[in-house]
Design a protein that fits this description.
single chain; 391 residues; alpha+beta; 8-stranded mixed sheet; 4-stranded antiparallel sheet; elongated; binds zinc ion
Length: 391
């Protein structure tokens, strides 16, 4: 049954903020389990009240990516659709959110069928648009805090390449980095390629910025702190003999500390403005932040409680201490909106005899089992750490 269930979202991915059918199917299933469901901000929330006790929220993300699937799996996505820019693109669940959906539904179903094993209120939250960093905030902006009971704690998970399938991994403190993407437009003065003295060359200006940005992490951030500055795109001009009038850079920033992140962002702005000045750029640079992700910073007490429950259920050899991961997540915007603590953990996607492809790769195809079973059990074990009745 689990195998059939995971094939449905795997074969029917939907892009960020387009998860209409996915949300409808999740709603139908939660309804059938007996949950009180609402669609909020493009996501779905199911509430199951079961007597006295704490309120626990468990979150799963549900969106796919514009990546053409190359897993060779019998249930591979063959879907195409229209992305935010209006282009027709193939897409797939290249980050395993299909597995998150099914594990979240499996946990919801198990808790509904075993109400004598626990007491309190369980909230199953299915969030859209994790991949753009806007989905959790969209639910908050649509009134999430006022539409559901206030949880005491929030939990979440992700299928990862490490640890191995069948294992879970936790860590206290920073688990995932904060991230920000910047679109930086710098301006020159167009001219004939043979007459550079009559123009201001934004290509040279942008090249200086790219080089100078490399000094931020190397020379301004303490060696003990973590930071990444990557220029992922640099575009200017159209022809060899034309000096264009602008250049656009797309820059990605990561850090495990909000102060470090702000320090990096301020340094980028300072360098861009100084290089524009140095080049006699005719107008100020435009710096626009997009796809911003908060820091995922696990509460030590919640992490301890969940980790102890995992050790109890899975055995110590299947519970790993994870190192912080440079990827990012918007999950924490949900607990942040309620002002509650949270923990987020990983579960393994790949077995030892399987070729490992990283998240977002066209070949990302976690082993359905034992990964799905482990993800489902981890969700239930984490929730029961708070709601379970003592035996
Ligand atoms: Zn992803
Ligand atoms: Zn993901």
């Amino acid at each position: 049954m689990a195998e059939r269930a995971v094939q449905a979202p795997a074969q029917n991915p939907e892009l960020s903020f387009q998860e209409v059918e996915t949300a409808a199917e999740i709603t139908r299933r939660l309804d059938s389990y007996g949950y009180a469901t609402q669609q909020i901000g493009g996501g779905v929330v199911g509430v199951l009240e079961n007597g006295e006790g704490p309120t626990v929220l468990f979150r799963a993300d549900i969106d796919a990516l514009p990546v053409k699937e190359n897993t060779g799996l019998p249930y591979a996505s063959t879907k195409t659709g229209v992305d935010a820019e209006g282009n027709t693109v193939p897409f797939m669940h290249a980050c395993g959110h299909d597995m998150h959906i099914v594990a979240g539904l499996g946990a919801a179903n198990l808790l509904a069928e075993n109400k004598d094993a626990w007491s309190g209120t369980y909230i199953a939250l299915f969030q859209p648009a994790e991949e753009t960093g806007g989905g959790a905030q969209a639910m908050v902006d649509d009134g999430l805090v006022n539409k559901i009971p206030k949880p005491d704690v929030a939990l979440g998970q992700h299928v990862l390449t490490v640890p191995a399938a069948g294992e879970v991994g936790t860590t206290a403190g920073p688990m995932l980095s904060t991230a920000a993407s910047l679109k930086i437009t710098v301006f020159g003065k167009g001219s004939h390629g043979s007459m550079p003295h009559l123009g201001v060359d934004p290509v040279v200006l942008a090249a200086s910025i790219v080089t100078r940005l490399q000094g931020i992490v190397a020379r301004e951030i303490a060696p003990s702190d973590f930071g990444v500055v990557t220029v992922g795109s640099l575009q200017a001009g159209s022809k060899a003999n034309i000096i264009p009038d602008r250049a656009t850079l797309l820059v990605n920033v990561r850090a495990y500390d909000t102060d470090v992140r702000e320090q990096i962002l301020a340094a980028i702005e300072r360098i861009v403005n100084a290089e524009c000045e140095a080049s006699a750029s005719p107008q100020p640079a435009e710096i626009e932040q997009f796809e911003s992700y908060p820091l995922t910073d696990n509460d030590a007490d919640v992490n301890d409680k969940v980790t102890a429950a995992f050790v109890d259920y899975f055995g110590a050899d299947r519970v790993k201490q994870l190192a912080p991961i440079t990827a990012s997540e918007d999950f924490s915007n949900v607990p942040r909106a309620f002002g509650i603590p949270y923990a987020y953990w990983g579960f393994g996607g790949f077995t030892a005899d399987q070729q490992v492809f990283p998240n977002h790769n066209p070949g990302f195809g976690p082993a359905m089992q034992p990964a799905l079973r482990t993800g489902t059990e981890a969700a239930v074990a984490g929730v029961l750490a708070y709601l379970g009745k003592a035996e």
